[in-house]
Amino acid sequence: MAFNTYADISSYVNTIWQDALLVARDNNLMVNLVTVFNDRAGMAVRSNSEYGTATIQSVAETDDLTSQAFTPAVLSSLTPAEVGAQFFMTDQRLESDPFMVRSDAAMELGSAVGQKIEKDLLGNFTSLTGGTVGTAGSVATWAYFYAMLTKLRAQNAPAPYAFVCRPEQWHYLGKAAAPGATVTNAPALQDSIVGQFYVGSVSGVNIFVSSNIAVTSGTDAYAAMFSPQALALDVRRAPRIEPERDASRRGWELNMSAVYAHGVWRPKFGVKALLAADSPDGTS
């Protein structure tokens, strides 16, 4: 008996392809949490300065006041740099690819530069000077959270405040405040944690979770609580994609470039926390 099977016609059947999957990336959030400058082009360094303070002295009735110095000193500087990337696609690739490769490539370039800016801003957490809590291996606790908030207030940092940590660090905070834990006097907080893996605001501090925070040696990472003035992004040329035809190579270039600076702006307005970022296994 002869069997008529798929193998008999497999060479004639076109392959069914799902859309090509782009690299998974976490959402970018830092641009909305820091000070952003976009009023200049070019490569000039942007600096800010800080004045000294006056010393109030006791004086007698006939004493003549002595003038004090009131001169600014450079506090922070932002140095622009250019970044870029390119995809080159041949005519044959464009004509034969079953996907919308050109639009997918443009989307990937845009996502990549966005993540680059995000990671650059997050990398400045280690340069904040408003205080430090935790040590290598320290588990995130609400005591650390409120210690950071206290340090910010002691620095007179202007609100609103943001707290940004890795998902593994938020795991410990969320677990500590979830129903069944020792926190029993804040039902609204417990409800928010059950409803979503994100706490909108705790004690006036907006909490965000980002996997773009780099893990240091071992399984630790720096989280931070900060005022918007603590960090800055200086955009000199917004990310742009320029296509260019290369006839001799018979294809198209997609060129992505951007010019920006990033760094600490008012470093005392941010507090960093070195906390464990090991992946939970459900037992801790």
Question: Major sheet, described briefly?
Answer: 6 strands, mixed
Count of discrete structural domains: 1
Say how many strands there are.
Answer: 12
Low-pLDDT windows of residues: 180-184, 190-198
**Beta-sheet strand percentage?**
25-35%
Based on helices, strands and strand pairing, what is the structural class?
alpha/beta
* Number of helices in the DSSP assignment: 5
SSE arrangement, N to C:
EEEEHHEHEHHEEEEEE
Helix-strand blueprint:
Blueprint: E1 35-37, E2 46-51, E3 72-78, E4 81-90, H1 91-96, H2 101-122, E5 132-133, H3 142-154, E6 161-165, H4 167-177, H5 187-195, E7 201-202, E8 205-209, E9 220-226, E10 231-246, E11 251-264, E12 270-276
Parallel strand pairs: 1-10, 5-12, 6-8
Antiparallel strand pairs: 2-3, 4-11, 6-9, 7-8, 9-12, 10-11
Please characterize this protein's 3D structure.
The chain has helices spanning 91-96, 101-122, 142-154, 167-177, 187-195, and strands spanning 35-37, 46-51, 72-78, 81-90, 132-133, 161-165, 201-202, 205-209, 220-226, 231-246, 251-264, 270-276. By secondary structure, it is an alpha/beta fold. The chain has one domain (30-48, 75-276). A hairpin with a 4-residue loop joins strand 10 and strand 11 (251-264). The protein is flat and about 100 Å long. Residues 180-184 and 190-198 have low confidence and may be disordered.
Relevant terms:
284 residues; alpha/beta
Gist of the model:
This protein is of the alpha/beta class and 284 residues long. A six-stranded mixed beta sheet has the order 5-12-9-6-8-7. The protein has a four-stranded mixed beta sheet with strand order 1-10-11-4.
